[in-house]
Design brief:
Umud Fragment, subunit A; globular; 2 domains; alpha+beta; 257 residues
Length: 257
């Protein structure tokens, strides 16, 4: 007669994943889509059969509320004390330029003066390159842990999710004439829902090709990354290909000719 296997106690992280998903009001399939993994993987996490990788713990933290975020980030090896120390240091650090008071700014002698200063957010220019099709970008699976080289100011109205918005420089020419070699892109890493990004410029990543700027399109049931010039072969987005969306491109800056 076979003995029944003893049920092991469910790990804390498994219960926390379930609670976070239920708080978001989504099912396992939707959470899997947001994290670019399979629904079976989410099921195994929530049953405590498979522990998420450090990268997935970071992504879970980005989706969570304050308490959930720190729980998941600690599981990824991020120490709160060191994080707070780094943030305090960053708040004391002087940016590479001073944001001016723009309340009195106006164009032309006859333009009416603004009564209220527009809100400006500070965006980090990351030490990373996004390649275009045919040019390898930096090997990064997400934008969360990339250090910044500079800080730039932008109107708050340009950044719907300022806490998730950062800047990347482009290398390559296959997105021309839209985006040129050396341009700076503003990337919103909160926007990764493919269904809302069809036809838009995005940043994708793969372990082999690194970060890549591309246009996301859907042909039938296929999600495809295309270059603007169409001179390069498109890339099919699938779990087997290893590509995933890491953010939507909001706008970009080009140098004057």
């Amino acid at each position: 007669m076979k003995k029944k296997l003893k049920q092991t106690q469910q790990p804390d992280w498994a219960r926390q994943i379930t609670r976070a998903r239920e708080r978001l009001g989504i099912n396992q399939a939707e959470l899997a889509r947001r994290l670019d993994c399979s629904a079976m993987t989410i099921s195994r996490w929530e049953r405590g059969l498979l522990q998420p990788s450090a990268e997935h713990f970071i992504q879970l933290g980005n989706l969570g509320n304050k308490s959930e975020s720190w729980f998941f980030w600690e599981k990824a090896g991020i120490q709160p004390a060191k994080m707070e120390e780094a943030l305090r240091g960053a708040s004391r650090a002087r940016p590479w330029f001073d944001l001016p008071q723009l309340g009195g700014a106006h164009a032309g002698a006859g333009a009416a003066r603004q009564e209220k200063a527009p809100q400006v957010v500070r965006l980090p220019l990351l030490k990373a390159i996004a390649g275009t099709h045919g040019v390898r970008g930096d090997s990064r699976s997400s934008l969360q842990a990339i250090p910044a080289s500079q800080v730039m100011g932008a109107p708050a109205t340009w950044c719907p999710n300022p806490g998730y918005t950062s800047l990347l420089r482009v290398k390559g020419r296959s997105m021309e004439p839209l985006i040129k070699n050396g341009d700076i892109l503003a990337v919103d890493s909160f926007q990764i829902d493919r269904k809302r990004l069809y036809g838009k410029v995005v940043i994708a990543a793969s372990e082999q090709k690194g970060l890549c700027v591309s246009r996301l399109r859907q042909y039938g049931t296929l999600d495809v990354l295309e270059s603007e010039s169409r001179e390069r072969d498109p890339v099919i987005l699938s779990k087997r290909s290893g590509w995933r969306i890491v953010g939507a491109v909001l706008w970009w800056i080009s140098a004057a000719p």
